[in-house]
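Teaching assistant here, posting this on the class forum so everyone can see the example we discussed in section. The complex has two components, and the goal was to see what a joint structure prediction looks like when all of them are supplied at once.
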Amino acid sequence: MGGDFGPHVTLPASLSALERHPYLNILLFGEVDQLDSLLARQRISESIMSRLQIRPSGISVSMDEKPSAAIRHRQDSSMSLAVQAVADNKAGACISAGNTGALMAFGRLVLKMQPGIDRPAIIASVPTLAGHCYMLDLGANVDCSAEHLMQFAVMSSVMVEAVDGNLHPKVGLLNVGEELIKGNEQVRLANELIREQDGLNYIGYVEGDDVFAGKADIVVCDGFVGNVSLKSSEGLARLISKRVLQGFSRNLYRRCLAFLARPVLKEIQEQIDPSRRNGATLLGLQGIVMKSHGSADQKCFGYALDRAITEVVQNVPEKIAERLSGYLPSKRN
Amino acid sequence: MGGDFGPHVTLPASLSALERHPYLNILLFGEVDQLDSLLARQRISESIMSRLQIRPSGISVSMDEKPSAAIRHRQDSSMSLAVQAVADNKAGACISAGNTGALMAFGRLVLKMQPGIDRPAIIASVPTLAGHCYMLDLGANVDCSAEHLMQFAVMSSVMVEAVDGNLHPKVGLLNVGEELIKGNEQVRLANELIREQDGLNYIGYVEGDDVFAGKADIVVCDGFVGNVSLKSSEGLARLISKRVLQGFSRNLYRRCLAFLARPVLKEIQEQIDPSRRNGATLLGLQGIVMKSHGSADQKCFGYALDRAITEVVQNVPEKIAERLSGYLPSKRN
C-alpha cells in the first residue's frame, strides 16, 4: 500500500515479477477491495494467479507517521503484516515502498537484530567508474556512533561477499579528507575500530568524489550524510539529463543529431539512472526487508523485487549471522 | 604556494587576471627564487609587471598540517602573510589553494570574526535547474550546533543579496526529509532558530535532490554533510562525463556523431563543470578570504580570482557587518 502510487505500482510490478520468475510466490498485503478491483482490470493467466495471494490489512502507515506511533497503532497495517510474514517463515523477504522509519521499526520489533548488531542500516548500490559500489547507511540512522559505523562495515562486507561473490570487498569510510586529522570524532574513532576488525579489506578514508570513482566496493557513513549524498547525486543526474535534453533540442539540426545519437544517449542514461538500482536492503535484521523508493514506477519497483529474490536465493541473513559470530563480540540477541 | 601545483598555477593565473582587470593589483607571497625563475620564462608587459609585487615568505603550510600547528609554526608562510595583508588593508582579498583548515585558522586569528558569528563557513555556488544556488558550510566545520547553522543562514543571505542582487534569497535547511519529524537534533533545533530570524526568506527543509532542482537560493548544512555532498556531486559529474566520452567513442559511426555533436556536448559540460565555479568564500570573517580547489588549473584558479574581485567591488564583509547588527545579538567581537 506504500509509496506515492500504492497498489497502482506494486500490483502490476508483482504480476510482472511472477511472469519473470516461474518459481516465485507473492503475498500482497493491503485493502482487499482496492486490490481486487485493480486485479479485475487485468488479464492474468491461471499459472500466475495461483502464485499470488491477497491478504487483508488494516489502516496503512502514512508517509509522515512517527515510527513509534506506527508500531503502537498500525500493527495490522500492510507493512506490519508483511514483516510478520517473514518472521513466521511464510515469506522469504518483505518489500515496501512505504515509510522507511516505520519499516525499520517493524523490522527491529518483529524480526529482531542480528546478534552483535545494534541498528539496521540501509544499503544500496550506486554506479561507479568500475561498475558499482554499495553505500550504507542511507538514512536509517541520522546519528551514528563509531561502534555503529564499525558494525555497518562488517555486515556489509559479508553481504557483498554473498551477493556479488566479491571475496574481499574494499571497505572505505566516508570522510571530508583522506588525512588522518580530518573528520569529526565519531569518524576518527570508527577508523580505528574498523581497522581492528580481522578479515576486513579496509582501505581507510574515502572522500565524496571517490564514491563514484569506484575507489571502494563499500562506502560506510552515517545515515544523514549517506542520505544527503545519495539524493544530491540523484538530483545532479536529473539536472544533467535535463541539460542534455535541452542542449539537443535547441534547433532542428540539433534535434536531428539527437535522433541519430539516441541509442548512445539512452545507453548512457541507463548506466547512470538511479531507478535502475532501486531496492535498498535494511541490513542487520534477522530476515530480508527491502525498501523501494517511494516514487518508484512499475519497472523500478520490479528492480527492488529482483534484488529481494537474489538475497533470498543467496540466503544473505544466514550468511551474515554465520560470519558475524566470528567477527564481533555477541552483545545481544 | 598552495594546492597541487603551487606557483605553476597561481603565477600564470595571476598574470592572466592582471590582463583581464586593468585596475587590479596582485601581491604574490612565496619563495622569491622560484617565483622569479617562473616569471623569467614569461614575456610580460610593463603595465602588468607594474601591478604585480612579489613578497618573500617562509616555509609553507603543508596540506596535512594541523591548523593549530600551522598558526604556531607558520606565521611567515605565504598563507599567513597573505591573510595579514588583508588585515593591514594592503589587500582587498586573500586567495589560497592551500590547506583549508589552516586558512580558516589564520583568518579567524588575524582578521577576526564578524560580531555575532562564531565560526567561518565555506560557501560556494553549485549549478541548478534554475541557474545556481549557494551551499554552506562545505567543510570548515565538521560539527555544527543549531546556533551555527542559524548564523550561516543569516550571513549567507546577506552575501547573496550583495553579490547576486537577489533581494530575498530563498534559504533552505538541508535534511533527510521534508517532514518536521525528520533529521537529527541539531537540524530540528536549527529549523526553529532560523524560522525566528526576521528578514530571512526561509523555506524550511530541503533534501539532497532539491539542491540541484533549484528549490532554494541558499542551502544550509554542516560542513561534513556539505563537503561530502559537494564532492559526491563532482564525482558523479566526472563519471557521467567519462560515460559520455566512452559512449561516443565505441565505433567510427559514433565518433563521427561525437564530432558533429561536439558543440552541444561542450556546452552541456560547461554548464555542469564544477571547476567553472571554483572559489569558495570563508564567510563570517572581517575580510575577504577565498579558497581555491587544491587541484585547480590556471583557468580554474582564475575563476576564484574573479570571484574575489566581485566580493571586493561589492564590499561584502562590510555589508554583512551592517546587516548583522540588525539580525543577531552581538556576542563577541
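For the discussion questions: The beta strands of chain A are 26-30, 52-56, 93-96, 121-128, 131-136, 170-174, 201-206, 218-220, 280-283, 288-291. The longest helix of chain A spans residues 223-247. Think about how each of these relates to the inputs above.
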